[in-house]
């Protein structure tokens, strides 16, 4: 009964009723977080740090109640999406450094698209990142993804024959 109540079916039905009742309920919760962090250091010692984090998910609930007097069903869904961006520049960047940084960011974007698209092997193969050594002293990046799904369902039969 607690499982049915946790999915949102009305309390007071089923076990307390003399009428045969069949109640079903289900709920699902999905969460996904993707995070990209990039750090670049120029030959002049300037540092650029970029962080991008995307969170999204949904909650869904549904159920039905069937008895001698009729049937009822319900469903509810909510979703969210959130993106945070942070850029930190220490130093002053010249045109050559900016061009080299744009090139690296474009390449990291391609790798991230592969990684977040589910092809981690292809992304790892592409991760050997070449950069303009005349302008940049070092480049590092980190891609991470976390997903979770929580699903619950329940069936309750009560009353005569239940």
Please, could you describe this protein's structure?
This protein is α+β, with helices and mostly antiparallel strands and 162 residues long. It has one domain (2-144). The protein has helices at residues 2-6, 95-116, 120-126, and strands spanning 21-42, 47-67, 70-90, 136-158. The chain has a 4-stranded antiparallel sheet with strand order 3-2-1-4. The longest helix has 22 residues, at 95-116. The chain is rod-shaped. The two termini are 13 Å apart. The model is unreliable at 1-5 and 11-15 (pLDDT under 50).
Ordered list of secondary-structure elements with their pairings:
Elements: H1 2-6, E1 21-42, E2 47-67, E3 70-90, H2 95-116, H3 120-126, E4 136-158
Antiparallel strand pairs: 1-2, 1-4, 2-3
Helix pairs in contact: 2-3
Concise overview:
The protein has three helices and four strands, in the order αβββααβ.
Question: Which keywords apply here?
Answer:
3 helices; four-stranded antiparallel sheet; 4 strands; alpha+beta; disordered N terminus; 162 residues
Radius of gyration computed on alpha carbons: 26 Å
Instruction: Sketch the major β-sheet.
Output: 4 strands, antiparallel
Compute the average pLDDT.
Answer: 87
Tell me the number of strands. Answer: 4
């Amino acid at each position: 009964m607690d499982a049915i109540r946790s999915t949102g079916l009305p309390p007071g039905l089923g076990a307390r009723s003399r009428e045969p009742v069949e109640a079903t309920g289900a709920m699902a919760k999905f969460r996904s977080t993707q995070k990209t962090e990039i750090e670049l250091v120029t030959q002049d010692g300037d540092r650029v740090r970029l962080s991008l984090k995307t969170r999204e998910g949904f909650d869904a609930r549904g159920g039905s109640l069937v008895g001698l007097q009729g049937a009822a069903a319900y469903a509810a869904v909510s979703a969210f999406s959130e993106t945070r961006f942070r850029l930190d520049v220490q130093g002053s960047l010249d045109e050559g450094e900016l061009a080299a940084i744009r090139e690296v960011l474009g390449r990291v974007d391609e790798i991230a698209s592969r990684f977040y698209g589910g092809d981690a092997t292809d992304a790892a193969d592409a991760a050997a990142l070449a950069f303009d050594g005349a302008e940049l002293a070092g480049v590092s990046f980190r891609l991470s993804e976390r997903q979770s799904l929580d699903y619950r369902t329940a069936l309750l039969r009560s009353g005569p024959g239940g």
